[in-house]
């Protein structure tokens, strides 16, 4: 039996593993289907993590985390967790996609979030063929070409600047005149001559052929439209939490969640189910910042140690 199962290998999961094992907990396994690192690995720029003064891409930033977080005995199992269920003795069963199961005394859910779809016509049809949510992954394919970016938050503005270093021009499409992005981030983008702001506008349609995207129809608030002849568009319109692991076979949540499906936790990262904890983007009121996710993971791990000492 595991003492602790950590589901998810981003900053929250890795930090939880580090603090749990360094705190003396044995038999701690982190379930992550791919390489650890989380959503931040697709970021083009990481410059606001305290103590790391060098500006790094997300992949480079997360690289040393793995070595450090596995140093004290954390184990990584490359498996996809379908769901978690609680047993009559208050332990938990971890149901894996290959049909196998593992039992754990406590669980920390750190499954994070994933980019939302924007909902415009052609988005699903051309996703992966000109529609992308990762500038770091796909920006190189548009070297010296024009592209569009949809969104008004920090991620959208930062990725527009990243693309401006590769592409000949970037059209930044935002539905309002005001932005959620940090003022300093927005100021940098406004000073970039390669970025053209299209405000009070939405993407009406993306069109193309078998080869991929050929253009983007932008619709403005006054009803006018503009046809951007671009081969690619990057969308950054928010995130959806990955909460399927806390649903039972009938699709019902096993712990309390809010209307957005985010897990309700207290300051100790405890859910409504004793022994079940949550950390990072999956929880309510998550700032969706790496530093916050790492802190959540540490808090959850320390809470798990106290829980196991008191109950097992």
Automatic annotation (TrEMBL):
Residue spans making up a coiled coil are none
Keywords on this record?
Disulfide bond, FAD, Flavoprotein, NADP, Oxidoreductase, Redox-active center
Record bears the keyword Oxidoreductase: yes
Alphabetized SUPFAM superfamilies for the sequence: FAD/NAD(P)-binding domain
Q: Which GO terms describe its cellular component?
A: cytoplasm
Biological process terms from the Gene Ontology for this record are: removal of superoxide radicals
Family to which this protein belongs:
Belongs to the class-II pyridine nucleotide-disulfide oxidoreductase family.
Indicate what this protein is called per its UniProt record: Thioredoxin reductase
């Amino acid at each position: 039996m595991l003492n602790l199962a950590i589901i998810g290998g981003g900053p929250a999961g890795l930090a939880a593993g580090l603090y749990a094992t360094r705190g003396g907990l044995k038999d701690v396994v982190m379930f992550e289907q791919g390489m650890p690192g989380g959503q931040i690995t697709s970021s083009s720029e990481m410059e606001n993590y305290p103590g790391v003064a060098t500006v790094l891409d997300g992949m480079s930033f997360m690289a040393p985390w793995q070595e450090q977080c596995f140093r004290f005995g954390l184990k990584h199992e490359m498996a996809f967790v379908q769901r978690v269920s609680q047993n009559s003795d208050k332990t938990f069963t971890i149901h894996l996609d290959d049909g196998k199961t593992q039992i754990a005394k406590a669980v920390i859910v750190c499954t994070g979030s994933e980019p939302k779809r924007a909902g415009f016509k052609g988005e699903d049809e051309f996703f992966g063929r000109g529609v992308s949510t990762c500038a770091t992954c796909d920006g190189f394919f548009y070297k010296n070409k024009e592209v569009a970016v949809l969104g008004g938050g920090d991620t959208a503005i930062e990725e527009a600047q990243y693309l401006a270093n590769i592409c000949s021009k970037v059209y930044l499409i935002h539905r309002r005149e005001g932005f959620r992005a940090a003022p300093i981030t927005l100021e940098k983008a406004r000073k970039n001559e390669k970025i053209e702001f299209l405000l009070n506008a939405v993407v009406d349609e993306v069109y193309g052929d078998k080869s991929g995207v050929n253009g983007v129809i932008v619709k403005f608030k006054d009803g006018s439209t503009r046809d951007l002849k671009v081969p690619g568009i990057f969308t950054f319109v928010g995130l959806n939490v990955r909460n399927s692991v806390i649903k039972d076979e009938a699709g019902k949540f096993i712990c309390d969640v809010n209307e957005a499906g985010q897990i309700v936790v207290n300051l100790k990262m405890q859910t409504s189910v004793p022994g079940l904890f949550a950390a990072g983007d999956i929880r309510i009121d998550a700032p969706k910042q790496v530093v916050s996710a790492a802190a959540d993971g540490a808090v959850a791990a320390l809470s798990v140690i106290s829980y196991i000492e008191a109950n097992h």
